[in-house]
Design goal:
By secondary structure, the protein is an alpha/beta fold. The protein contains 8 helices and 7 strands, in the order E-H-E-H-E-H-E-H-E-H-E-H-H-H-E. It is an enzyme of class 1 (oxidoreductase).
C-alpha cells in the first residue's frame, strides 16, 4: 500500500494530483482549509481510500497536531511507500518592497516556506526506522531563480524552499533512514493563482500583461497534465535533494 499526503488539494494542482493518485493501491490523505466534495465519489468509483484533514497551513500552530492525525492513519507495516507532497501555496502579496502589508508577508512566508519545513521535519522524524520508501515533494517555482518585480516575497520563499530541499538531500545522504526529498517546478498552469496574477495592478506587478498574454494565447498548462508528469516522475529513480523542472519532461 502507498500512502500520499497532499496539501492544498481542494483545487488547482493539488486537486489534479489527488485525482491522478486515485488507485486501489493508494491511500490519500489531503489537507486544506476546505474539503473537496467531489473526491469522495471519485475515490469510491476508483476503490481508493481517501481522508480529509482540515488545516490552515498559514497557522503554524495547527501543523504538528494535524500531522499527528495524518500519521495515525498510516500503517507503516503495510506501507510500501509514504509520500508527502507540499503543494499548498500563495502568490500574494503582489507588491513592491516597501508597499506590502507586513501581515500578508508573514502569512505568505508561513504558508509557502515555514509550513513545508515543519511538515518535512515531522515527516522525517516519523519515518525513522521505516523500511519502505519515504519521499518529500516540495512544489516550487521558476520564480525561485528569477527576481521579478512585485514578487519579492514569492521569489524569496521559493528560493528558500529549493535550498531547504537541497539541504535535506545532503543530510539524508549521511543518514540511514534516507528520506528522499525533491522539489518540482510545474511552470505556468491554468489555476486560481494565475487568475490572481492576471488581475494584479500593473503598478504592483509590471509583468501583468505578459501573464495575460499567456492566458489569451493558451500557453497555460492544464493541472491534470502537470500532475500526470509529476506522478510519473515519482515512479522513477529520484536524485535526493534535486530540483526538477517540468521542462525536462516535455
Amino acid at each position: 500500500m502507498n500512502y500520499y499526503i497532499v496539501t492544498g488539494a481542494s483545487r488547482g494542482l493539488g486537486e489534479a494530483i489527488v485525482k491522478e493518485l486515485l488507485n486501489p493501491n493508494n491511500v490519500i490523505i489531503y489537507l486544506s482549509r476546505t474539503s473537496n466534495p467531489a473526491f469522495d465519489e471519485l475515490a469510491a468509483s476508483k476503490k481508493t481510500a481517501i481522508f480529509f484533514e482540515e488545516c490552515d497551513l498559514s497557522d503554524i500552530d495547527q501543523i504538528r497536531a494535524v500531522m499527528k492525525k495524518v500519521f495515525s492513519k498510516i500503517d507503516a507495516k503495510l506501507a510500501n511507500k509514504i509520500t508527502l507532497i507540499n503543494n499548498a501555496g500563495m502568490v500574494d502579496p503582489i507588491k513592491y518592497v516597501g508597499e506590502a502589508d507586513e501581515k500578508n508577508i508573514v502569512s505568505a512566508v508561513k504558508l509557502n516556506l515555514l509550513a513545508p519545513m515543519i511538515m518535512s521535519d515531522y515527516f522525517i522524524k516519523e519515518s525513522k526506522g521505516y523500511t519502505g520508501q519515504a519521499v518529500i515533494v516540495n512544489i516550487t517555482s521558476g520564480a525561485a531563480n528569477r527576481p521579478t518585480a512585485g514578487w519579492s516575497t514569492y521569489c524569496s520563499v521559493k528560493a528558500g524552499l529549493n535550498m531547504f530541499t537541497n539541504t535535506i538531500g545532503v543530510e539524508q545522504g549521511e543518514r540511514e533512514n534516507n528520506v528522499i526529498a525533491i522539489a518540482f517546478s510545474p511552470g505556468i498552469m491554468d489555476t486560481q493563482m494565475q487568475s490572481t496574477i492576471r488581475t494584479a495592478d500593473r503598478k504592483d506587478f509590471s509583468s501583468s500583461n505578459q501573464f495575460k498574454e499567456y492566458h489569451e494565447k493558451g500557453l497555460l498548462r492544464a493541472p491534470g497534465f502537470v500532475a500526470h508528469l509529476l506522478i510519473k516522475l515519482l515512479s522513477s529513480s529520484l536524485e535526493n535533494g534535486r530540483v526538477y523542472d517540468i521542462k525536462e519532461f516535455i
